[in-house]
Amino acid sequence: MSKRKYKLLAVDLDDTMLNSRLMVPKGSRRAVEQAREAGVRVTLATGRMFCSALPFARELGVQEYLMTYQGALVKHAVTGDVLFHRPVPFDLALEVIELVNRYGYHINIYVDDIPYIARQTKESELYTAISRIPMEEVGDLTAFLRERKQDPTKIVVVTREELIDSLLAEVRPLFGDKLHITKSKPHFLEFSHPLGNKGDALTAIAEHYGVAREEIIAVGDGYNDLEMIDYAGLGVVVGNARPEIRERADYVCRTNDECGVAEVVEKFILAES
Protein backbone atom coordinates (compact mmCIF):
# COMPACT_ATOMS: atom_id res chain seq x y z
CA MET A 1 0.00 0.00 0.00
CA SER A 2 1.35 3.43 -0.89
CA LYS A 3 1.81 6.08 1.73
CA ARG A 4 -1.38 8.07 2.25
CA LYS A 5 -1.17 11.48 0.61
CA TYR A 6 -3.62 13.38 2.81
CA LYS A 7 -3.38 13.39 6.59
CA LEU A 8 -5.67 16.25 7.67
CA LEU A 9 -9.19 17.14 6.54
CA ALA A 10 -10.58 20.54 7.58
CA VAL A 11 -14.27 21.12 6.89
CA ASP A 12 -16.50 24.16 7.28
CA LEU A 13 -19.90 23.55 8.90
CA ASP A 14 -22.65 25.84 7.62
CA ASP A 15 -23.52 25.35 3.94
CA THR A 16 -20.66 22.82 3.62
CA MET A 17 -20.87 19.93 6.06
CA LEU A 18 -24.39 20.86 7.17
CA ASN A 19 -27.28 20.60 4.74
CA SER A 20 -29.96 23.25 4.29
CA ARG A 21 -31.76 21.89 7.38
CA LEU A 22 -28.61 22.52 9.47
CA MET A 23 -28.05 18.80 9.89
CA VAL A 24 -25.15 16.48 9.04
CA PRO A 25 -26.28 14.17 6.21
CA LYS A 26 -25.83 10.47 6.96
CA GLY A 27 -23.54 10.04 3.97
CA SER A 28 -21.18 12.76 5.11
CA ARG A 29 -21.23 11.47 8.70
CA ARG A 30 -20.25 8.00 7.51
CA ALA A 31 -17.54 9.40 5.23
CA VAL A 32 -15.96 11.34 8.09
CA GLU A 33 -16.00 8.19 10.19
CA GLN A 34 -14.27 6.29 7.37
CA ALA A 35 -11.66 9.03 7.00
CA ARG A 36 -10.90 8.86 10.69
CA GLU A 37 -10.71 5.06 10.55
CA ALA A 38 -8.21 5.42 7.71
CA GLY A 39 -5.98 7.50 9.98
CA VAL A 40 -6.82 10.97 8.68
CA ARG A 41 -7.27 13.68 11.28
CA VAL A 42 -10.56 15.56 10.84
CA THR A 43 -11.19 19.06 12.16
CA LEU A 44 -13.99 21.57 11.83
CA ALA A 45 -13.34 25.12 10.66
CA THR A 46 -16.27 27.37 11.42
CA GLY A 47 -17.35 30.87 12.23
CA ARG A 48 -19.53 29.38 14.95
CA MET A 49 -18.79 29.68 18.63
CA PHE A 50 -16.97 26.76 20.22
CA CYS A 51 -20.07 25.79 22.20
CA SER A 52 -22.11 25.85 18.98
CA ALA A 53 -19.60 23.76 17.03
CA LEU A 54 -18.96 21.18 19.75
CA PRO A 55 -22.23 19.20 19.35
CA PHE A 56 -21.42 18.65 15.67
CA ALA A 57 -17.87 17.58 16.53
CA ARG A 58 -19.27 15.02 18.93
CA GLU A 59 -21.81 13.80 16.39
CA LEU A 60 -19.02 13.35 13.84
CA GLY A 61 -16.61 11.78 16.32
CA VAL A 62 -14.09 14.57 15.76
CA GLN A 63 -11.45 14.44 18.49
CA GLU A 64 -9.03 17.13 17.41
CA TYR A 65 -8.60 20.89 17.84
CA LEU A 66 -11.53 22.83 16.38
CA MET A 67 -11.16 26.12 14.53
CA THR A 68 -14.00 28.27 15.83
CA TYR A 69 -14.90 31.97 15.56
CA GLN A 70 -13.33 31.96 12.04
CA GLY A 71 -10.13 30.64 13.62
CA ALA A 72 -9.83 33.16 16.45
CA LEU A 73 -10.27 30.36 19.02
CA VAL A 74 -8.66 26.96 18.43
CA LYS A 75 -9.74 24.63 21.18
CA HIS A 76 -9.64 20.85 21.58
CA ALA A 77 -12.98 19.09 21.18
CA VAL A 78 -12.25 16.56 23.94
CA THR A 79 -9.77 18.00 26.41
CA GLY A 80 -10.79 21.67 26.12
CA ASP A 81 -7.13 22.62 25.75
CA VAL A 82 -6.76 26.00 24.00
CA LEU A 83 -4.09 26.03 21.29
CA PHE A 84 -4.60 29.75 20.94
CA HIS A 85 -7.16 32.53 21.42
CA ARG A 86 -6.73 35.66 19.30
CA PRO A 87 -9.47 38.14 20.25
CA VAL A 88 -10.26 41.57 18.85
CA PRO A 89 -8.16 44.19 20.67
CA PHE A 90 -10.33 46.12 23.12
CA ASP A 91 -9.89 49.62 21.68
CA LEU A 92 -10.52 48.43 18.13
CA ALA A 93 -13.63 46.59 19.29
CA LEU A 94 -15.01 49.82 20.74
CA GLU A 95 -14.26 51.68 17.51
CA VAL A 96 -16.07 49.08 15.41
CA ILE A 97 -19.12 49.03 17.69
CA GLU A 98 -19.35 52.82 17.79
CA LEU A 99 -19.09 53.09 14.01
CA VAL A 100 -21.72 50.41 13.35
CA ASN A 101 -24.05 51.86 15.98
CA ARG A 102 -24.36 54.99 13.83
CA TYR A 103 -26.27 52.90 11.30
CA GLY A 104 -28.38 51.05 13.85
CA TYR A 105 -27.38 47.61 12.53
CA HIS A 106 -27.61 44.58 14.76
CA ILE A 107 -24.33 43.60 16.46
CA ASN A 108 -23.22 40.45 18.28
CA ILE A 109 -20.12 40.44 20.48
CA TYR A 110 -18.63 37.34 22.07
CA VAL A 111 -16.92 37.13 25.43
CA ASP A 112 -16.02 33.84 27.15
CA ASP A 113 -17.98 31.86 24.52
CA ILE A 114 -21.20 33.76 25.27
CA PRO A 115 -22.95 35.95 22.66
CA TYR A 116 -24.07 39.38 23.84
CA ILE A 117 -26.48 41.77 22.12
CA ALA A 118 -27.94 45.17 22.95
CA ARG A 119 -31.51 43.93 22.52
CA GLN A 120 -33.49 41.18 20.85
CA THR A 121 -34.17 41.78 17.15
CA LYS A 122 -35.27 39.73 14.17
CA GLU A 123 -31.56 39.43 13.34
CA SER A 124 -30.76 37.98 16.77
CA GLU A 125 -33.64 35.53 16.36
CA LEU A 126 -32.18 34.43 13.03
CA TYR A 127 -28.73 34.00 14.53
CA THR A 128 -30.08 32.03 17.49
CA ALA A 129 -31.99 29.72 15.15
CA ILE A 130 -28.77 28.96 13.29
CA SER A 131 -26.38 28.72 16.25
CA ARG A 132 -28.84 27.11 18.69
CA ILE A 133 -27.27 29.23 21.42
CA PRO A 134 -29.34 31.79 23.40
CA MET A 135 -28.08 35.36 23.37
CA GLU A 136 -27.59 37.58 26.40
CA GLU A 137 -29.29 40.99 26.18
CA VAL A 138 -27.16 43.63 27.93
CA GLY A 139 -28.22 47.02 26.56
CA ASP A 140 -25.51 49.36 25.31
CA LEU A 141 -22.68 47.16 24.03
CA THR A 142 -20.01 49.83 24.39
CA ALA A 143 -20.88 50.34 28.06
CA PHE A 144 -21.02 46.58 28.59
CA LEU A 145 -17.60 46.04 27.05
CA ARG A 146 -16.06 48.91 29.02
CA GLU A 147 -17.42 47.37 32.21
CA ARG A 148 -16.11 43.89 31.34
CA LYS A 149 -12.73 45.23 30.22
CA GLN A 150 -12.21 42.15 28.02
CA ASP A 151 -11.22 41.75 24.42
CA PRO A 152 -14.17 40.14 22.58
CA THR A 153 -13.36 37.03 20.57
CA LYS A 154 -15.31 38.34 17.58
CA ILE A 155 -17.82 40.98 16.46
CA VAL A 156 -20.58 40.18 13.98
CA VAL A 157 -22.87 42.65 12.22
CA VAL A 158 -26.14 41.26 10.86
CA THR A 159 -28.24 43.10 8.27
CA ARG A 160 -29.26 42.95 4.61
CA GLU A 161 -26.51 42.03 2.16
CA GLU A 162 -26.54 45.31 0.27
CA LEU A 163 -26.02 47.14 3.57
CA ILE A 164 -23.30 44.67 4.57
CA ASP A 165 -21.49 45.31 1.28
CA SER A 166 -21.71 49.07 1.76
CA LEU A 167 -20.41 48.78 5.33
CA LEU A 168 -17.61 46.49 4.19
CA ALA A 169 -16.46 49.08 1.66
CA GLU A 170 -16.38 51.68 4.43
CA VAL A 171 -14.59 49.69 7.12
CA ARG A 172 -11.92 47.98 5.03
CA PRO A 173 -9.88 51.18 4.56
CA LEU A 174 -10.28 51.99 8.27
CA PHE A 175 -9.55 48.60 9.81
CA GLY A 176 -8.29 46.40 6.99
CA ASP A 177 -4.69 46.35 8.23
CA LYS A 178 -5.73 46.01 11.88
CA LEU A 179 -8.49 43.39 11.76
CA HIS A 180 -9.59 40.47 9.65
CA ILE A 181 -12.92 41.43 8.06
CA THR A 182 -15.02 39.00 6.07
CA LYS A 183 -18.53 37.93 5.17
CA SER A 184 -19.46 34.49 6.48
CA LYS A 185 -23.03 34.42 5.24
CA PRO A 186 -24.19 37.11 2.81
CA HIS A 187 -25.84 39.01 5.67
CA PHE A 188 -23.11 38.48 8.31
CA LEU A 189 -20.05 40.77 8.45
CA GLU A 190 -17.41 39.49 10.84
CA PHE A 191 -14.56 41.33 12.54
CA SER A 192 -11.75 39.32 14.14
CA HIS A 193 -8.08 39.51 15.04
CA PRO A 194 -5.80 39.86 11.96
CA LEU A 195 -4.64 36.27 12.57
CA GLY A 196 -8.12 35.15 13.60
CA ASN A 197 -8.95 33.52 10.29
CA LYS A 198 -9.25 29.94 9.08
CA GLY A 199 -6.03 30.03 7.10
CA ASP A 200 -3.82 31.00 10.03
CA ALA A 201 -5.72 28.63 12.31
CA LEU A 202 -5.23 25.74 9.88
CA THR A 203 -1.55 26.60 9.62
CA ALA A 204 -1.20 26.41 13.41
CA ILE A 205 -3.05 23.10 13.66
CA ALA A 206 -0.99 21.60 10.86
CA GLU A 207 2.23 22.68 12.53
CA HIS A 208 1.01 21.30 15.86
CA TYR A 209 0.38 17.89 14.30
CA GLY A 210 3.42 17.98 12.03
CA VAL A 211 1.34 17.91 8.84
CA ALA A 212 2.60 19.61 5.66
CA ARG A 213 0.20 21.85 3.76
CA GLU A 214 0.42 19.43 0.79
CA GLU A 215 -1.12 16.79 3.08
CA ILE A 216 -4.21 18.90 3.89
CA ILE A 217 -7.67 19.00 2.32
CA ALA A 218 -9.84 21.99 3.19
CA VAL A 219 -13.52 22.14 2.22
CA GLY A 220 -15.68 25.27 2.40
CA ASP A 221 -18.23 27.45 0.66
CA GLY A 222 -17.79 31.08 1.65
CA TYR A 223 -15.59 34.16 1.67
CA ASN A 224 -14.45 33.27 5.19
CA ASP A 225 -13.11 29.93 3.89
CA LEU A 226 -10.83 31.41 1.25
CA GLU A 227 -7.70 31.63 3.42
CA MET A 228 -7.83 27.94 4.35
CA ILE A 229 -8.79 26.88 0.82
CA ASP A 230 -5.77 28.77 -0.50
CA TYR A 231 -3.48 27.31 2.19
CA ALA A 232 -4.44 23.65 1.87
CA GLY A 233 -2.74 21.34 -0.57
CA LEU A 234 -6.20 20.57 -1.94
CA GLY A 235 -8.71 23.39 -1.63
CA VAL A 236 -12.26 22.17 -2.25
CA VAL A 237 -15.45 24.21 -2.60
CA VAL A 238 -18.96 22.76 -2.49
CA GLY A 239 -21.16 23.19 -5.53
CA ASN A 240 -23.64 25.48 -3.78
CA ALA A 241 -20.99 28.17 -3.27
CA ARG A 242 -21.05 31.41 -5.24
CA PRO A 243 -19.16 31.43 -8.56
CA GLU A 244 -16.37 33.69 -7.31
CA ILE A 245 -15.70 31.24 -4.46
CA ARG A 246 -15.78 28.19 -6.74
CA GLU A 247 -13.19 29.86 -8.97
CA ARG A 248 -10.66 29.70 -6.12
CA ALA A 249 -10.99 25.93 -5.70
CA ASP A 250 -8.69 23.15 -6.85
CA TYR A 251 -11.80 20.98 -6.99
CA VAL A 252 -15.55 21.64 -6.84
CA CYS A 253 -17.58 18.85 -5.27
CA ARG A 254 -21.30 18.24 -4.98
CA THR A 255 -23.49 20.59 -2.94
CA ASN A 256 -23.98 20.43 0.81
CA ASP A 257 -27.41 18.85 0.26
CA GLU A 258 -25.82 16.22 -1.98
CA CYS A 259 -23.21 15.11 0.58
CA GLY A 260 -20.35 16.95 -1.08
CA VAL A 261 -18.04 16.22 1.85
CA ALA A 262 -18.65 12.49 1.34
CA GLU A 263 -17.60 12.85 -2.30
CA VAL A 264 -14.34 14.48 -1.22
CA VAL A 265 -13.55 11.74 1.28
CA GLU A 266 -14.37 8.97 -1.19
CA LYS A 267 -12.41 10.50 -4.07
CA PHE A 268 -9.32 11.80 -2.34
CA ILE A 269 -8.95 9.73 0.85
CA LEU A 270 -10.66 6.35 0.56
CA ALA A 271 -9.58 5.86 -3.05
CA GLU A 272 -5.98 5.86 -1.80
CA SER A 273 -6.58 2.80 0.36
From TrEMBL:
Lineage, broadest ranks: Bacteria, Bacillati, Bacillota, Clostridia, Eubacteriales
Gene3D superfamilies xref list: 3.30.1240.10, HAD superfamily/HAD-like
Protein name: HAD-superfamily hydrolase, subfamily IIB
PANTHER family, per database record: HAD SUPERFAMILY HYDROLASE-LIKE, TYPE 3, PHOSPHOSERINE PHOSPHATASE
Keyword flag Signal: no
Pfam families xref list: Hydrolase_3
Keyword Hydrolase set for record: yes
GO CC, one annotated term: cytosol
Keywords: Hydrolase
Family annotation (NCBIfam families): Cof-subfamily (TIGR00099), HAD-SF-IIB (TIGR01484)
